[in-house]
Amino acid sequence: MSLKGDSHRQDKCVEGSFLYWDDELLRVFSSTLSYWSYYWEQLPLLLHGALVFARKEPNSQLRVLDVGCGGGELSIPVFDALASDFCRIQLTGIDPGENNIRNFRLRHERQQAKFLLGGIECKKFQDLEEGEKFDLVFCSHSLYEVFETAGNYSSSAVRVVEKLFRLLGPDGICCVILASGNSRAYEFKRQAYGVLGCADRFFMTAEHFRDLLKQSGKPFQEEVVDTYVDASTFWSGEPNHREDCLKWLSYFLRVNCFAIPTESQDRLINLFQDFSLPFGSLPEQFKSYCRKYPAACGPPSDRTPTVFHKESVFVGRQEYATTP
Protein backbone atom coordinates (compact mmCIF):
# COMPACT_ATOMS: atom_id res chain seq x y z
CA MET A 1 0.00 0.00 0.00
CA SER A 2 1.37 3.40 -0.94
CA LEU A 3 0.55 6.31 1.33
CA LYS A 4 1.77 9.75 0.33
CA GLY A 5 3.78 12.07 2.55
CA ASP A 6 2.67 15.41 3.91
CA SER A 7 3.65 17.73 1.04
CA HIS A 8 -0.03 18.31 0.23
CA ARG A 9 -0.54 20.09 3.55
CA GLN A 10 0.76 23.29 1.98
CA ASP A 11 -1.85 23.21 -0.79
CA LYS A 12 -4.22 26.15 -0.81
CA CYS A 13 -7.36 24.01 -0.84
CA VAL A 14 -6.45 22.37 2.48
CA GLU A 15 -6.17 25.68 4.33
CA GLY A 16 -9.94 26.24 4.49
CA SER A 17 -11.65 24.35 7.28
CA PHE A 18 -14.09 21.70 6.05
CA LEU A 19 -17.63 21.60 7.38
CA TYR A 20 -18.44 19.60 10.51
CA TRP A 21 -21.74 17.80 10.90
CA ASP A 22 -24.72 19.90 11.87
CA ASP A 23 -28.46 19.78 11.28
CA GLU A 24 -28.16 21.47 7.88
CA LEU A 25 -25.60 18.95 6.63
CA LEU A 26 -27.76 16.13 7.95
CA ARG A 27 -30.73 17.51 6.01
CA VAL A 28 -28.74 17.68 2.75
CA PHE A 29 -27.10 14.27 3.17
CA SER A 30 -30.12 12.32 4.38
CA SER A 31 -32.30 13.72 1.61
CA THR A 32 -29.81 12.98 -1.18
CA LEU A 33 -27.67 10.01 -0.05
CA SER A 34 -29.43 6.68 0.25
CA TYR A 35 -26.83 5.41 2.72
CA TRP A 36 -28.53 6.92 5.75
CA SER A 37 -31.65 4.78 5.51
CA TYR A 38 -29.31 1.79 5.83
CA TYR A 39 -27.35 3.55 8.58
CA TRP A 40 -30.25 4.03 10.97
CA GLU A 41 -32.05 0.78 10.18
CA GLN A 42 -29.33 -1.84 9.74
CA LEU A 43 -26.26 -0.53 11.58
CA PRO A 44 -27.75 -1.06 15.08
CA LEU A 45 -28.54 -4.66 14.08
CA LEU A 46 -24.97 -5.16 12.83
CA LEU A 47 -23.49 -3.79 16.06
CA HIS A 48 -25.91 -5.85 18.15
CA GLY A 49 -24.83 -9.04 16.39
CA ALA A 50 -21.14 -8.22 16.83
CA LEU A 51 -21.59 -7.51 20.55
CA VAL A 52 -23.56 -10.72 21.11
CA PHE A 53 -20.87 -12.65 19.23
CA ALA A 54 -18.31 -11.03 21.55
CA ARG A 55 -20.28 -12.43 24.50
CA LYS A 56 -21.57 -9.07 25.73
CA GLU A 57 -24.61 -9.62 27.93
CA PRO A 58 -27.65 -7.32 27.43
CA ASN A 59 -27.82 -6.51 31.16
CA SER A 60 -24.11 -5.76 31.53
CA GLN A 61 -22.63 -2.26 31.35
CA LEU A 62 -21.51 -1.34 27.85
CA ARG A 63 -18.84 1.34 27.65
CA VAL A 64 -18.93 3.09 24.26
CA LEU A 65 -16.50 5.61 22.75
CA ASP A 66 -17.88 7.67 19.86
CA VAL A 67 -14.93 9.18 17.96
CA GLY A 68 -16.02 12.29 16.06
CA CYS A 69 -19.46 12.23 17.67
CA GLY A 70 -20.59 15.45 15.97
CA GLY A 71 -23.76 16.96 17.38
CA GLY A 72 -25.35 13.53 17.79
CA GLU A 73 -27.40 13.80 14.58
CA LEU A 74 -26.08 10.44 13.37
CA SER A 75 -24.96 8.42 16.38
CA ILE A 76 -27.69 9.17 18.94
CA PRO A 77 -30.34 7.28 16.90
CA VAL A 78 -27.92 4.36 16.45
CA PHE A 79 -27.08 4.03 20.15
CA ASP A 80 -30.67 4.69 21.16
CA ALA A 81 -31.71 1.70 19.06
CA LEU A 82 -28.88 -0.37 20.52
CA ALA A 83 -29.97 0.61 24.04
CA SER A 84 -33.25 -1.22 23.48
CA ASP A 85 -31.27 -4.45 23.91
CA PHE A 86 -28.25 -3.25 25.91
CA CYS A 87 -29.92 -1.26 28.65
CA ARG A 88 -26.77 -0.03 30.41
CA ILE A 89 -24.88 1.82 27.69
CA GLN A 90 -22.60 4.59 28.89
CA LEU A 91 -21.27 6.71 26.04
CA THR A 92 -18.12 8.81 25.95
CA GLY A 93 -17.84 11.18 23.01
CA ILE A 94 -15.00 13.22 21.54
CA ASP A 95 -15.13 15.75 18.72
CA PRO A 96 -12.87 18.66 17.67
CA GLY A 97 -15.84 21.05 17.29
CA GLU A 98 -17.01 22.90 20.41
CA ASN A 99 -20.47 23.52 18.93
CA ASN A 100 -20.82 19.81 18.24
CA ILE A 101 -20.12 18.94 21.87
CA ARG A 102 -22.69 21.45 23.07
CA ASN A 103 -25.28 20.26 20.53
CA PHE A 104 -24.68 16.61 21.44
CA ARG A 105 -25.53 17.31 25.08
CA LEU A 106 -28.62 19.30 24.11
CA ARG A 107 -29.84 16.67 21.64
CA HIS A 108 -29.25 13.84 24.12
CA GLU A 109 -31.41 15.64 26.67
CA ARG A 110 -34.07 16.82 24.21
CA GLN A 111 -34.56 13.39 22.65
CA GLN A 112 -34.50 11.67 26.06
CA ALA A 113 -31.98 9.16 24.80
CA LYS A 114 -32.06 5.75 26.46
CA PHE A 115 -28.29 5.57 27.05
CA LEU A 116 -26.26 7.34 29.72
CA LEU A 117 -23.97 10.15 28.68
CA GLY A 118 -20.55 9.93 30.33
CA GLY A 119 -17.69 12.27 29.57
CA ILE A 120 -17.98 14.22 26.32
CA GLU A 121 -15.07 16.44 25.35
CA CYS A 122 -13.85 18.79 22.65
CA LYS A 123 -10.83 16.73 21.69
CA LYS A 124 -9.14 15.22 18.67
CA PHE A 125 -8.52 11.48 18.42
CA GLN A 126 -4.78 12.19 18.28
CA ASP A 127 -4.97 13.79 21.75
CA LEU A 128 -7.05 11.04 23.36
CA GLU A 129 -5.29 9.27 26.21
CA GLU A 130 -5.46 5.50 26.35
CA GLY A 131 -6.15 4.83 30.01
CA GLU A 132 -9.84 3.89 29.80
CA LYS A 133 -10.96 0.74 27.97
CA PHE A 134 -14.18 0.42 26.00
CA ASP A 135 -16.49 -2.36 24.86
CA LEU A 136 -17.23 -0.53 21.61
CA VAL A 137 -15.22 2.12 19.78
CA PHE A 138 -17.30 3.73 17.03
CA CYS A 139 -15.80 5.83 14.20
CA SER A 140 -18.31 6.84 11.54
CA HIS A 141 -16.49 8.78 8.79
CA SER A 142 -14.45 10.48 11.52
CA LEU A 143 -10.92 9.24 10.75
CA TYR A 144 -10.26 11.01 7.43
CA GLU A 145 -8.65 14.05 9.06
CA VAL A 146 -6.80 11.83 11.54
CA PHE A 147 -5.06 9.98 8.72
CA GLU A 148 -4.60 13.09 6.58
CA THR A 149 -2.83 15.11 9.27
CA ALA A 150 -0.78 12.22 10.61
CA GLY A 151 2.30 13.15 8.55
CA ASN A 152 4.29 10.04 7.58
CA TYR A 153 1.32 7.88 6.61
CA SER A 154 3.12 4.61 6.05
CA SER A 155 4.00 4.36 9.75
CA SER A 156 1.49 6.65 11.49
CA ALA A 157 -1.52 5.06 9.76
CA VAL A 158 -0.56 1.74 11.34
CA ARG A 159 -0.26 3.48 14.71
CA VAL A 160 -3.80 4.86 14.35
CA VAL A 161 -5.14 1.32 13.88
CA GLU A 162 -3.09 0.04 16.80
CA LYS A 163 -4.44 2.82 19.02
CA LEU A 164 -8.03 1.97 18.08
CA PHE A 165 -7.52 -1.59 19.32
CA ARG A 166 -5.59 -0.53 22.43
CA LEU A 167 -8.70 1.42 23.48
CA LEU A 168 -10.70 -1.81 23.57
CA GLY A 169 -11.20 -3.95 26.62
CA PRO A 170 -11.33 -7.78 26.47
CA ASP A 171 -13.49 -8.89 23.52
CA GLY A 172 -14.14 -5.24 22.69
CA ILE A 173 -15.54 -4.27 19.29
CA CYS A 174 -14.23 -1.56 16.99
CA CYS A 175 -16.52 -0.26 14.23
CA VAL A 176 -15.02 1.98 11.52
CA ILE A 177 -17.01 3.32 8.56
CA LEU A 178 -15.18 4.71 5.53
CA ALA A 179 -15.98 5.54 1.92
CA SER A 180 -14.73 3.23 -0.80
CA GLY A 181 -12.30 4.36 -3.47
CA ASN A 182 -14.06 2.19 -6.08
CA SER A 183 -17.02 4.28 -7.15
CA ARG A 184 -17.94 7.09 -9.50
CA ALA A 185 -18.21 9.39 -6.48
CA TYR A 186 -14.58 8.73 -5.56
CA GLU A 187 -13.42 9.16 -9.15
CA PHE A 188 -15.17 12.53 -9.07
CA LYS A 189 -13.24 13.34 -5.88
CA ARG A 190 -9.91 12.61 -7.58
CA GLN A 191 -10.73 14.89 -10.49
CA ALA A 192 -12.17 17.57 -8.19
CA TYR A 193 -8.88 17.75 -6.30
CA GLY A 194 -7.23 18.42 -9.64
CA VAL A 195 -9.60 21.35 -10.21
CA LEU A 196 -8.72 22.66 -6.74
CA GLY A 197 -4.98 22.38 -7.31
CA CYS A 198 -4.29 19.60 -4.81
CA ALA A 199 -4.34 16.49 -6.99
CA ASP A 200 -1.89 14.65 -4.71
CA ARG A 201 -3.99 15.12 -1.57
CA PHE A 202 -4.28 11.91 0.42
CA PHE A 203 -7.71 10.63 1.40
CA MET A 204 -8.12 7.44 3.40
CA THR A 205 -10.36 4.89 1.70
CA ALA A 206 -11.95 1.63 2.76
CA GLU A 207 -9.43 -0.20 0.59
CA HIS A 208 -6.46 1.46 2.33
CA PHE A 209 -7.96 0.74 5.73
CA ARG A 210 -8.60 -2.91 4.82
CA ASP A 211 -4.90 -3.29 4.02
CA LEU A 212 -3.97 -1.70 7.34
CA LEU A 213 -6.19 -4.14 9.24
CA LYS A 214 -4.62 -7.07 7.42
CA GLN A 215 -1.17 -5.78 8.29
CA SER A 216 -2.17 -5.49 11.94
CA GLY A 217 -3.30 -9.10 12.03
CA LYS A 218 -6.51 -8.14 13.84
CA PRO A 219 -9.63 -10.20 13.07
CA PHE A 220 -12.30 -8.14 11.33
CA GLN A 221 -15.38 -8.39 9.15
CA GLU A 222 -16.34 -5.98 6.39
CA GLU A 223 -19.79 -5.16 5.08
CA VAL A 224 -19.86 -3.26 1.79
CA VAL A 225 -22.83 -0.93 1.38
CA ASP A 226 -23.78 0.18 -2.14
CA THR A 227 -25.49 3.53 -2.25
CA TYR A 228 -26.23 6.47 -4.51
CA VAL A 229 -26.46 10.25 -4.43
CA ASP A 230 -29.82 11.59 -5.67
CA ALA A 231 -28.64 14.72 -7.49
CA SER A 232 -32.02 15.72 -8.93
CA THR A 233 -32.25 18.93 -6.89
CA PHE A 234 -28.64 20.01 -7.34
CA TRP A 235 -29.01 20.98 -10.99
CA SER A 236 -32.26 22.94 -10.77
CA GLY A 237 -30.53 26.33 -10.82
CA GLU A 238 -32.34 27.58 -7.73
CA PRO A 239 -30.02 29.43 -5.29
CA ASN A 240 -30.88 27.24 -2.30
CA HIS A 241 -30.16 24.09 -4.32
CA ARG A 242 -26.78 25.47 -5.38
CA GLU A 243 -26.05 26.13 -1.71
CA ASP A 244 -27.05 22.58 -0.81
CA CYS A 245 -24.75 21.24 -3.52
CA LEU A 246 -21.83 23.29 -2.17
CA LYS A 247 -22.56 21.99 1.35
CA TRP A 248 -22.51 18.43 0.04
CA LEU A 249 -19.27 19.02 -1.85
CA SER A 250 -17.63 20.77 1.11
CA TYR A 251 -18.09 17.78 3.38
CA PHE A 252 -17.41 15.17 0.72
CA LEU A 253 -14.21 16.84 -0.49
CA ARG A 254 -13.16 18.07 3.00
CA VAL A 255 -12.75 21.55 1.52
CA ASN A 256 -14.72 24.72 2.27
CA CYS A 257 -16.23 25.17 -1.19
CA PHE A 258 -17.93 28.41 -0.11
CA ALA A 259 -14.49 30.02 0.25
CA ILE A 260 -13.27 29.30 -3.29
CA PRO A 261 -13.91 31.57 -6.33
CA THR A 262 -17.30 31.33 -8.03
CA GLU A 263 -15.63 30.09 -11.21
CA SER A 264 -14.11 27.15 -9.32
CA GLN A 265 -17.46 26.44 -7.66
CA ASP A 266 -19.09 26.27 -11.10
CA ARG A 267 -16.39 23.92 -12.37
CA LEU A 268 -16.90 21.59 -9.40
CA ILE A 269 -20.69 21.58 -9.78
CA ASN A 270 -20.46 20.93 -13.53
CA LEU A 271 -17.90 18.17 -12.96
CA PHE A 272 -20.18 16.57 -10.38
CA GLN A 273 -23.07 16.74 -12.83
CA ASP A 274 -20.93 15.03 -15.51
CA PHE A 275 -20.52 12.05 -13.19
CA SER A 276 -24.26 11.52 -12.74
CA LEU A 277 -26.08 8.69 -14.49
CA PRO A 278 -29.81 7.98 -14.84
CA PHE A 279 -30.83 5.58 -12.09
CA GLY A 280 -32.39 3.32 -14.74
CA SER A 281 -28.99 2.70 -16.35
CA LEU A 282 -27.52 1.16 -13.18
CA PRO A 283 -27.25 -2.66 -12.74
CA GLU A 284 -30.49 -4.27 -11.62
CA GLN A 285 -28.94 -5.80 -8.49
CA PHE A 286 -27.72 -2.38 -7.41
CA LYS A 287 -31.09 -0.76 -8.15
CA SER A 288 -32.91 -3.41 -6.13
CA TYR A 289 -30.71 -2.78 -3.10
CA CYS A 290 -31.04 1.00 -3.37
CA ARG A 291 -34.84 0.82 -3.67
CA LYS A 292 -34.79 -1.04 -0.36
CA TYR A 293 -32.82 1.81 1.24
CA PRO A 294 -33.82 4.97 -0.65
CA ALA A 295 -32.79 8.52 0.09
CA ALA A 296 -35.13 10.55 2.29
CA CYS A 297 -36.58 12.32 -0.75
CA GLY A 298 -38.09 8.99 -1.84
CA PRO A 299 -37.34 6.10 -4.22
CA PRO A 300 -35.68 7.29 -7.44
CA SER A 301 -37.28 7.03 -10.85
CA ASP A 302 -35.33 5.61 -13.77
CA ARG A 303 -34.58 9.16 -14.92
CA THR A 304 -33.27 10.39 -11.56
CA PRO A 305 -29.65 11.62 -11.95
CA THR A 306 -27.54 9.61 -9.54
CA VAL A 307 -23.88 9.28 -8.63
CA PHE A 308 -22.81 5.80 -7.56
CA HIS A 309 -21.21 5.65 -4.11
CA LYS A 310 -19.96 2.87 -1.85
CA GLU A 311 -19.21 2.57 1.86
CA SER A 312 -17.56 -0.11 3.99
CA VAL A 313 -18.42 -0.92 7.59
CA PHE A 314 -15.46 -2.61 9.34
CA VAL A 315 -16.01 -4.47 12.60
CA GLY A 316 -12.89 -5.67 14.40
CA ARG A 317 -12.57 -7.51 17.68
CA GLN A 318 -9.94 -7.32 20.39
CA GLU A 319 -9.08 -10.83 21.48
CA TYR A 320 -7.13 -11.35 24.69
CA ALA A 321 -5.29 -14.55 25.42
CA THR A 322 -6.75 -16.33 28.44
CA THR A 323 -4.42 -17.81 31.06
CA PRO A 324 -4.89 -21.52 31.71
Q: Summarize the helix and strand pattern as letters.
A: HHHEHEHEEHHEHHEHHEHE
CATH class bucket: Alpha Beta
Chain-averaged pLDDT: 85
Radius of gyration: 20 Å
In CATH terms, what is the fold-level topology? Rossmann fold
Shape: globular
Structural class: alpha/beta
Q: Approximately how much helix is present in the residues?
A: 40-55%
**The CATH fourth-level homologous superfamily:** Vaccinia Virus protein VP39
Number of helices: 12
* Oligomeric status: single chain
| End-to-end CA span | 39 Å
Low-confidence stretches: 1-17
* Number of DSSP-assigned strands: 8
Q: How many domains make up the coordinates?
A: 1
Can you walk me through this structure?
The protein is an alpha/beta fold. It has a single domain, classed as 3-Layer(aba) Sandwich (Rossmann fold). The protein has twelve helices and eight strands. It has helices at 12-15, 23-32, 35-53, 75-82, 98-110, 144-148, 153-166, 184-195, 206-216, 239-253, 262-274, 284-292; strands at 62-67, 89-95, 116-122, 134-140, 168-179, 220-230, 277-278, 305-317. Strands 1, 2, 3, 4, 5, 6, 7 and 8 form an eight-stranded mixed sheet that branches. α3 runs parallel beside α4, α7 packs across α9 and α8 (184-195) packs antiparallel against α11 (262-274). The chain is globular, with a radius of gyration of 20 Å.
